[in-house]
Write a structure and sequence with these properties.
Number of helices: 15
Bound molecules: adenosine monophosphate
Strand content: 15-25%
CATH class of the largest domain: Alpha Beta
Radius of gyration: 28 Å
Helix content: 25-40%
CATH topology of the largest domain: BirA Bifunctional Protein, domain 2
Number of strands: 16
Shape: elongated
Structural class: alpha+beta
Low-confidence stretches: none
Mean pLDDT: 94
Strand order of the largest sheet: 1-5-6-11-10-9-7-8
CATH superfamily of the largest domain: Bira Bifunctional Protein, Domain 2
CATH architecture of the largest domain: 2-Layer Sandwich
Length: 424
């Protein structure tokens, strides 16, 4: 076949799609229990939203966006992340009216033109939260706890929690200046991209994967030496709350995540089961983002986690995931008339919450029984013309081979009782 998935994308075939559904269902249940509500925004947005929100100096805006002009001449971009769109929706619909804290969660595909490798693709799936409208460090701590508890609930054990404080509009400029001054002294060791980053936003040099740039950054000034009293107090409280929740973490002074909008707390959860792409999820506080995209000041905190990497980690830790739910009953038929009757029976069984299947391939009775055996059903209900005429069918217990004549009128009840017994 000559037309296949575009580079950096993949199909979620049923086995993987079922895991994704499980990730989603687990997230919805847990996030709702933490008071978060679902939100969904368009796959594409005005390009300006990301340019202003994420920042021009970031790799995402500079090299990774899927930007196109639509037939009306608008510049649109496939969303590379969902924080800026969710904040846009919050502002557009005045969700915070009355000064309340708005807690939202989402899930869906994101798009970044990155070099594909294990755990990194061009279309990838994220699940995330945003809490908008509160300055309190308890909201930061709650987000961190929730991210970790989510991974734990899925069954992951190998988790490292890294946190940092990036300072705020008050204290970051001095740090930025100090970092730029330091980097200017080491320009010959930096890659051309970092030389450009240095002038646009020196913090972005932390994102560079080049080992020589990483060496330079290892000796760079640390943001902690520049944070103002307010930021330090906020960070101390976040740490105290994490301790209160019994959550183990490490402070990593180099955790400067790749978006310009972060202020104060940033965090990341990693798994050592993954290779180079070891970040399962991360986030932080972004008190300036709403203003950057043209709204009024709105403090916020959020995180996003990657579904593919989470699935890789689950596999690496050998966590069992839900398998295909069993089909309980196969209704086997002998000829055209009974086939039609079987169609009605299958429908009634399904309405009674009994997972039922029948033949759609014109197989012989023998072929149907073989198919029933292969698919692992608990029972086969065989509908022959004589039995149908008597208003009955023969139900075979596939494990014991025992057969019983069951009146069609009682079939749902008869099966429901025995399926319950078999499953319990
Ligand atoms: P970010 O939005 O960059 O903070 O990323 C949050 C999470 O999304 C990461 O920790 C990854 O799990 C996931 N992620 C980010 N970029 C990609 C990508 N290109 N491919 C797969 N997962 C990704």
């Amino acid at each position: 076949m000559s037309i296949v998935t575009p580079k950096g994308t993949s199909d979620m075939l049923p086995d993987v799609a079922r895991k994704w559904q499980f990730l989603l269902a687990t997230a919805a249940e847990l996030f709702e229990a933490y008071g978060y509500e679902p939100i969904d925004t368009p796959i594409f947005e005005a390009t300006e939203l990301f340019v202003r929100g994420i920042g021009e100096a970031t790799d995402i805006v500079h090299k990774e966006m899927y930007t196109f002009e639509d037939k009306g001449g608008r510049s649109l971009t496939l969303r590379p992340e969902l924080t800026a769109p969710v904040v846009r929706a919050y502002l557009q619909h005045n969700l915070g009216g009355g000064g309340r804290l708005v807690k939202l969660y989402y899930a869906g595909p994101m798009f970044r033109f990155e070099r594909p490798q294990a755990g990194r693709s061009r279309q990838f799936w994220q699940i995330g939260i945003e809490a908008l409208g509160a300055e309190a460090p308890s909201v930061d701590a709650e987000a961190i706890v929730l991210l970790v508890r989510y991974f734990e609930r899925l069954g992951l054990r190998d988790l490292q929690v890294l946190i940092n404080s990036m300072g705020c509009v008050e204290c970051r400029p001095a740090y930025r200046e100090a970092l730029a001054a330091y980097l200017r002294g080491r320009t010959p060791e930096l890659c051309p991209d970092c030389v450009r980053r240095l002038e646009m936003n020196p913090l972005r040099v932390f994102d560079c994967k080049n080992p020589e740039c990483a060496d330079v950054m290892n000796e760079a000034p640390e943001v902690a030496d520049f944070t103002c009293g307010d930021c330090a107090e906020h960070f101390n409280e976040v740490k105290a709350l994490l301790a209160e929740a019994g959550l183990a973490y490490e402070v990593d002074a180099r955790l400067v995540r790749g978006f310009d909008y972060y202020t104060k707390t940033t965090f990341e959860v990693r798994s050592s089961q993954l290779g180079a792409q070891n970040a399962l999820g991360g986030g932080g506080r972004y008190d300036g983002l709403a203003e950057m995209i043209g709204g009024s000041r709105t403090p916020g905190v959020g995180f996003a986690l990657g579904a593919e990497r989470t699935m890789l980690a689950l596999e690496a830790e050998d966590v069992s995931m839900p398998a295909r739910p069993p089909v309980h009953v196969f209704v086997a038929t002998v000829d055209e008339t009974t086939r039609r009757a079987a169609f009605g029976i299958v429908g009634r069984l399904r309405e009674a919450q009994i997972a039922a299947e029948m033949d759609h391939m014109g197989r012989s009775l023998k072929g149907q029984m073989k198919q029933a055996g292969k698919s692992g059903v608990l029972f086969a209900a065989i509908l022959g013309p004589d039995e149908a005429a008597r208003g009955e069918c023969t139900v075979r217990d596939m494990e014991s081979g025992e057969e019983s004549a069951v009146p069609l009128a009682d079939l749902e009840e008869w099966l429901a009782e025995r399926i319950k017994e078999e499953i319990m």
